[in-house]
Records
---
Amino acid sequence: MADRKADLDAENSAAMEVEIEPALSDFAGAAVTRLGYLHPRATFNVRDHVIVVEGAIGDAPTMRRDVLHALYRERISDRGEDLRTRLIEGLLSR
Amino acid sequence: MNVWPLKFRPTHDGAILFADDAGGFFRSDGAFLDRYALGALTGSDREFLSANGHAFETEGDLDHTGFAYRWASRQAAAGDLAYVILVPTLRCNLACSYCQVSRADERARGHDWTEETLKAVIAFLDGLKTESIKVEFQGGEPLLRVDLLERVRAFCRRRFKSAEFVVCTNLQRLGAAEWAFIDAPDTFVSTSIDGNVATHRAQRTITDDKTEEFFSNLDLALERLGPGRISALPTIDVEAPPPAASVLDTYARYGIRSIYLRPINYQGFARKRHAALNVMDRWNAIYREFVDLMIERNAEGGETFEEYYLVHCLRRVLRTGQDGHVDLRNPNFLGRDYLVLDHDGRFYPTDEARMMTRIGQIDLSVGDIFSGLDTSKLDALNAHATNLFDPDCLHCPYQAFCGVDLVDDIAREGRIDGPKIHTDFCRRHTFMFDLVFELLYSRDPKVRRSLAIWAGVPDLPYSIAPEHA
């Protein structure tokens, strides 16, 4: 843990906030969980209506895009789960 | 209207690629992504999605049924066991630098099938349900025991309605018996040409005599068998790759136009050492150089080249049912339709599993020829043999075209339950499908000519790669 913190300090100590649209707020928790292993040198936390990114942000526009896309992916996956389940159940039960 | 879930990925040129679970795909932009993800599709969006098979009105309607059919066609159905890789001997008459774990010295004892093992192999083959068998002889150098190969082949010809044999041979020391074996029309030769003559000598044959012996035998084999019954692949050293042009020239000289480029498959400590050298990125750069050169050469007319695995990935994008390559399919159940049988009678689900067991990394043998398959071990592995529910693959637009390689995950990551996105398999195939889609959306006439050749069609229409503004 100490090593990782040292890495973060050394590499990039910047922070940024990405606003969460109301339609995406239910998916922020799932998104930061996934972002945490996609970007292991950064940390992600949900505060109010933003995701706070700290550590090795790298290229800020790219990180902002990745955060937004993570939210989108979780929402799409959630919204599509019922369709997927019914498709597979329908095919396997025939 | 119901829209099937769309996975997306930014492309190299700033667009966004979308694909559904049945492999339908298109390109659009960030504005469309915003509208789709936030539930604000326009009439034009809905029209496009409906016209291109990404949506349906009611469950069971034609659009829904069509999607269900396409989705089901994307799933690989493992048939009866009909493909066996047999290793009758581990001994070899070469000592290639990158092959130490899968061979034994030619003079070593205890590395060949015994008479008892041979009889058990034949009894095992006799018990298979299939009427059509493919037998691949690997080693070591399998032709060192051409007597065993002859007995297996003679049995299979009698037992099965159709039988095909492949000998993976270094073509080094061929006498009358070996030539007689490979001369048969139901028998194919798979060999290695490591790029060009100089590289082949450095990596494999070492001496001038052995190098000359190989290339003379290759000439003779082509003369006797014809190019249609001989395939060859180069094993590329990422740290010292031969020039792409010289590899293509060498293969062209032997009339071999389909080249399966592969990096050296290091094992054990050598793999760890090379992994630290960023081999993946270097390999991808080398690979891209080869593909670009093939596209240039193909545009010049005359005989054309293809990179075998790129063409396979391309065809998996464009068609369903392309499940013949056991390293790339989904689900990829182990121990079902193909199996490896080692020199000591032990079964393995793949050749990589055999290597890992041999170096002591993990025992992935799944029974033996005397006591049968260990189905409990296979079942444990096969519980994870699909990418359908993986939390990374679920978000990936390449999911429908991609697959699973559990043995590779164990070999490289030591486990099968880590994030797929960090695995060597995922990184390699993300690169491959990025390349496929870059080529599919290219407007370069040279690229389009190669794509048409590789897809097996006279001309590739632009409509095969839809775009939504």
---
Amino acid sequence: MQTQVNILFVVLASAIFALLLVAFIVIFLNITQKRSFKYNENLLRIKQEYDSAILNSQIEVQAQTLKEISEELHDNVGQILSSVILHIKVIGEKAPVNIQKQIEDTKSLVTEIKEQVRHISRSISPQHIENFGLFNAITYQADRINRIGAIKIELKTEGKEKKYNPRIELVLFRMVQELINNAIKHSECENIYVKLNYVNEVLTISVKDDGKGFDETEILRDRQFRDGTGLHSLENKAKFINCSITFNSGEKGTKVTIIKDFENEYY
Amino acid sequence: MNYYKLLVTISMASIILPNIGGILAYRKLDIEGKKILLFFGVFMIVDFTISWLANHNINNMPMFNIFSILEYGFYAYLFYSNINNRNWRKGIYYSIWFFSAFTIFAVIFIRSIYEFNSEVRVVESLFLVFCSLLYFSQLSNTLIFERTKIFKIPMFWISIGVLFYFAGNFFLFLFFREISQISPTIWSLHSVVNIITNSLFMISFLCRLK
């Protein structure tokens, strides 16, 4: 009788044990997977932070280098060119009348070079962007290109212009600069339209050209193409300042839209 | 109909569950999913035939014994397809031949083909419990790379079902002779385990739906 009870007990116990074993496996695997998801999320976050730090240093190094070049152009090259103009003026006073016209032409050319150097110095200076704001910096850049005459840049704003965090504005300016350069270099366009739209704390910048455009699928696929056209760098910058960037391209040209929400980042 | 008979009937009918699950999720089934559904379809026909034979007082054990080979082959094939280690795969592959040979040996030399071969079920349980533990071990090692939630993996639910059924009934199969003499109603335990197992197999299809 005792053996029979034992057998029944073992059978029942084994069924209960199987149930517990299954429950244990389910709980164990579920917890392990949750942990591994968390671990992967942390890994991704650390990678993003690392990428962001790298990009930050790149931007800082670039800003510092451009600042130094800008100062060098303004203080050194600008001064030398002023001296050259002065020298030409002195030579002009003593020179015979028959070469006065050439001297005057040379003086005008050097003055033009000095002016161009001053413009370049201002447009690359981070200080200039910080002092005058994003809109004025873009206006200055557009004027400089319009003066050359090959391509026309039309600049428009909608909404009330605001001043935001200068570091973010600097990155946005570099992005616009890169988009304008891309349009000039690759699109064979005649006109570039830049629009800044301020709605509440959201700034939307669109850069549109009337050039030949490109294959959008090519962009998504080809990393080399993205690197070559600086699109990868644009995406990195967008990620760095936490804004969105979209590319639309077709036969009538390319339109790039940058949307930055400045909520909580208002300066 | 008493409680015990009702439970046995529900248990027998519960093989419909995975088939319903498979039909509901049919559009989401890949080739392996369709193969599994086909096997469950065959299982259902076999189960109903076994039941029909029993109701007509015809010995259904020959069919049951032959079906054991098919059943083991099916589960072993699933583990063979889902386990990555080459050596274990080889082991599972040979176990199908071994089990088939053992079943034939058992029905000829140990028991008659007209009897329930508990030895065959014990060996089958041992192999399949081991296979499912092997699968879980592999799953726990690869979880870090697994993007799908475990509850969305069909093989996870099939392994749970196999482990629960064969571990839960192991001692029932082992002490089959003794239990038949002491208390035949203890077989209601098998019915309960079987219903839960078929429900788990149904989830293995439904988990593919969003």
